[in-house]
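User: Reviewer 2 asked us to show a designed sequence for the structure in our supplementary figure. I'm pasting the structure tokens here. Could you produce the per-position amino acids so we can include them in the response letter?
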């Protein structure tokens, strides 16, 4: 029994040391999204990768973008919120200019602000594809531009009519390089 506990403790210590020694990267920043023919939706975003995620080729991304921080400021535009998470593959992660492609999913919510529209769908699942370019500057700054397509998009009957399929996104990220160093 003591041998099993010792092996478990040693294994956990080795796992912890291995995790701390691997290269990790966390980027946080702003996302500026333009839906084709509709709203500007802006918000916050993150991008995380580490050596265990296909040697930093796979990135886990997340964002909250909203027309409340874009087109709906000072206007009668619909207030739409997008909560997204995705997995993107970076094809040349060792170079400053990187091409990526991936899948996103999440939740879309629109606030019609009038009980008259309560019969319309206001919450939907997001699922889509995204591809683009990212540039990694020598200073701790990354900038990306991408094109996305919502595979589930608005028909006004069972999906909100304001969930348009095509969007463009600009991301400006600050690299938190010192976060994972000892």
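Assistant: Here is a per-position design you can include in the supplement:
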């Amino acid at each position: 029994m003591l041998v099993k506990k010792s092996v478990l403790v040693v294994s956990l210590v080795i796992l912890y040391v291995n995790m701390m020694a691997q290269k990790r990267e966390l980027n946080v920043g702003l996302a500026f999204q333009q839906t084709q023919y509709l709203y500007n939706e802006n918000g916050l975003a993150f991008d995380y990768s580490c050596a265990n995620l296909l040697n930093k080729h796979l990135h886990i991304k997340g964002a909250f973008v909203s027309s409340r921080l874009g087109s709906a400021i000072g206007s009668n535009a619909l207030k739409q919120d997008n909560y997204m998470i995705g997995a993107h593959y970076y094809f040349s992660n060792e170079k400053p200019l990187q091409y990526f492609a991936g899948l996103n999913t999440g939740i879309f919510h629109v606030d019609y602000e009038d009980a008259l529209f309560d019969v319309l769908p206001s919450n939907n699942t997001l699922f889509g594809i995204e591809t683009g370019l990212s540039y990694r500057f020598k200073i701790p700054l990354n900038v990306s531009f991408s094109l996305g397509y919502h595979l589930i998009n608005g028909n006004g009957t069972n999906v909100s009519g304001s969930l348009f399929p095509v969007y463009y996104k600009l991301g400006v990220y600050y690299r938190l390089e010192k976060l994972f160093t000892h």
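For the response letter, you might also mention the following. Residues 86 and 104 are 4 Å apart (CA to CA). The mean pLDDT is 86.
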